Predict the 3D structure of the following.
Amino acid sequence: MIRFIAKRLGSGLVVLFVVSALTFFLLYISSGSIARNILGDQATAEQVAMKEHELGLDQPLPVRYFAWVGDALTGNLGASWFTSEPVANSLATRIPVTMTMVFAAMILIAICAALIGVAAAVKRGWVDRAVQVGAILGDSIPGFVIGVILVTILAIQLGIFPATSTISPDSGAEAWVYSMTLPVIALLLNGVTGGAQQIRSAVIKQLERDYVRTLRSRGIGEGEILFKHVLRSAAPAGLTVLSLQLIGMLGGVVIIEQIFALPGMGPLAVAATGQSDLPVVMGVVMYTVVVVIVVNLLVDILNGWLNPKVRVS
Amino acid sequence: MKLGPKAAAAALILSASLALTACGGGTPAGSGGGAAATALTLGTLRDVTSWDPAQAHVGHVLQPYQAVYDTLILREPDGKLSPMLATAWKYNTGNTKLTVDLRTDVTFSDGAKFDAEAAKANIDHFKKANGPQMAQLASVSDVSVVDADTIDINLSTPDPGLEYFLSQAAGLMGSPKALGTERIKTEPVGSGPYVMDKAATVKDSQTVFNARKDYWNKDLQKYQKLTFKILADLTARTNALVSGQVDATLLDPKTGKQAEGAKMKLAANEVDWQGLLLLDRDGAKNPALANVKVRQAINHAFDRKTILEQVMLGQGTPTSQPFGKGSGAWTQELENYYSYDPAKAKQLLKEAGFETGVTLEIPLVPNFETQISVVKQQLADVGIELKVGAALTNTFTADVAAQKFTTMYFSLFQGQPTVAIDQIVSTKALYNPFKSASPELDAKIAAVRNGGADAGKLAQEVNKYVVEQAWFAPLFRVNQMYYTNAKVNVTPQIEQAVPSIYNYSPAK
C-alpha cells in the first residue's frame, strides 16, 4: 500500500510539473499586452516598456518559467501583477471558503445520494422512477439557476438567508453557516440526483450477480447481503462518481461564488484569468491540480480499504 | 457534474466582458442591512489594485481613494472646481506655471503634516510611479516649493486639463512618510475623511473605513462607518441591493427594472457613448473608409432612437457627436447631425463610387452582441456588409494599437476636452491607431491645448471637425443606472458612473 501511495504521489508530481509548464506557456501567449492592460488605455509606449521591465516580461520565456519554478519550490508563488498581493496570501484567505463549501456539499451529496440510490435499487417501483426523473431534472438545471431561484425566494422574498455573503473577519461562525447554506444547496442538488442515479445502477448490478443468489440460497438475510456484500462491491463505482463530482464542482463553484459574492477561489480565478494575471493563475492552477491529485489518491486508498480486490490488482 | 467546464467558460467570458467594459461598468453597492443611518455600505465592481494614491484611476475606480485621500482641488457634482487642500490656484500669463496655495491645518492619519513639501512629494511620486493615470501629469516638468504653504507647478507645455487632474488621481495626497513604501499598497495613509479598518478589511471582498476623528472638513464626512463591498457579479449586486445588504449600487437597464420594483431610487447619469469607431480613415487597410462620403453614409444608416429603445430600454440619448455634455465641447447643433436616412446613405455611397457595396470588419465585443447585430442589420439595409470577427480578448488594447481593427463597436468614456482628444482624436490617442490627422485639425487641437479656461469652447471646433468628417458613427450616450435605497440621498457626479464619496448623505 505504501508503495502504491508513493507511486501515485510520484505521478502526481509529474502531472503538477507538466500542467504548470503548459499553463505558463499558454498564458505567455496571451500576456503580450499585459503591461498595457495594467496601465490602461492612456499609457505611453515608454510607460509600457517600463512596466514590462518591472515585471520581468522582457526576459526570455524559459528564464521566466524556471525562475517561477525555483521560487515555487521554496514556497514563494510570487505576487499578483495587478494588485501586488502575494499569491500565497490570496490562496490562504480563499481556499478555506471554497473548500468549506465544496466539502460540505460533498458530504451531504455522499449521504443523500447513497441513501436515495440504495433505496431506489432495493425498493424499485415509484421510488426508482422518482430517482430517474430527478436525475434528468438535476442534470438539466444548472447549479447557478438553482442558486438564483433560491436567492429570489429565500433571501429576497422571505429574508431568511443573506442574498450575498456576509463572511468577514468580524463575523462569527453563524455568518459562515448562513452565507454558505444557499450556495451549498445550489451546488449539491444536481450532485445528489446524479450520484443517486449512479449508485442505484451499481447496486442493482450487484444485486443481480450470482454471488447474491448464492448468499440468498444459503439463507443469509437481505440486510446482511446488502450492507456486508453488495454495498462493498458497489462502493468503487459510487466513490468514483463522487470524486468526479468533487473535481467537477471546482468548476461549478466558480459561478456560484460569483452569484453569492463569496470571497472564494472562484472570483479570484475569474479575475486573474480574464486579466492574464499569470502569477495568480499559476497559483490557482496549482491549487486545483493538487486538489485533484489528493482526491484521486484518497479515493484509491478508500477503494482499497473497502474492497480487497482493488488492493490485489 | 457536467456543468463544471461550461460554468467555468461562462465565467471566463463574463470576466473578459467585465474587463472590457470597465470604463462604463463600475459598480458600487452598499450593504447596510439594518445598520444605523451613520453607516454607508457601497458595493463596487472590483477592489482597488493598490492603495498607493499614484495607482488611482478615473471615475468609479477613483471613489474608494476619496474615502481616505483628500485631493488638492475638489470637483463638485456639476464639475465646478472648488478649494480642498488647495485654497487658491492661479496660472501665470503663459499658462506654464500654476501657483497653488495650500491649507495649513491638515495632518495625515499617521501624524505627518500636510504642507508644500508633502504636496511636492506626492506630485513627484505620481510622476515616477508609473500608475494608470500617469499621463495626467505628463505636461508637468517639476514642482517647486515657494514657502511652507505654496507650491509652483511648472509645465513644459500648457495643459488646460491640469486643474481638473488635480481633483482626480493626480491630486490625491498621501502621507509623505508612507509614499513609496510597501505598506501603503495595502493600507492607505491619507488626510481624508475616513481611515481604513485593516482588521475588518478583506482583499476582494470588503473594505471597511471608520470616520477619522478631527477631520478638517466635517461637511465632507457624513458617515461614521463606510464599507465597500466588492460585488463583481451584476446579479449579486441586484440581489444585495434589493435585499438591503447594500445601500447603493450600479445596475443596468434590465436589472434596474427589478430594483425599481423593490422601490429603489435611480440616479441616472450619462457617462459613456457607444457607437462605431471608423478608425482606418486613410484607407490603409479598408480603402472605402478613406472616403468621407462612405463614413457619412454609415452615420445616416442608423435609426438611433429605435436602437436605444430596443436595446437599452431607452436609457440614454441618441447623438451624432463623441464629445460629452460636461466637456464644454458638446453643441446642440451636432446632436442630431446625422439623421436616420437610408436613402441619403445609399446616395452618398453612390456618389463615392461604392454603390456596389462596402464591407466593414469589426471584432465582436462581449456584452455588445445585441448592439452589433442591430448595427449589422441596419448597415445591410443601405448596402454595407458588416463582417463580425472574433471576440476581443484581453490583448485588445495592444491589438487596437497594432492597427488590427479598421472599425470597432465600442463604449467609451466622455471626458474633459483634452482627455477626450487624447483618447480618440489626437495622434497620441489609443483610439486613433492609424494616426489620422490634418493640418486643420492639428491647429484646432493646438488651440484647445493653449486655450486655458476657454479650452472647452475651443474644443467645439474639434468636435465639429470629427463629426463633419465622420470619424465615428456615435449612436447614443448611455445612462449609468445608479440605484440607492430609501436610507441614502445621492447626487450624481458629472462624468462618473459612480458618484464621488462626498455626494452621499443620510436621508432625513
Summary: Chain B has 16 helices and 19 strands. Residues 271 and 495 of chain B are 5 Å apart (CA to CA). The longest strand of chain B covers residues 265-278.
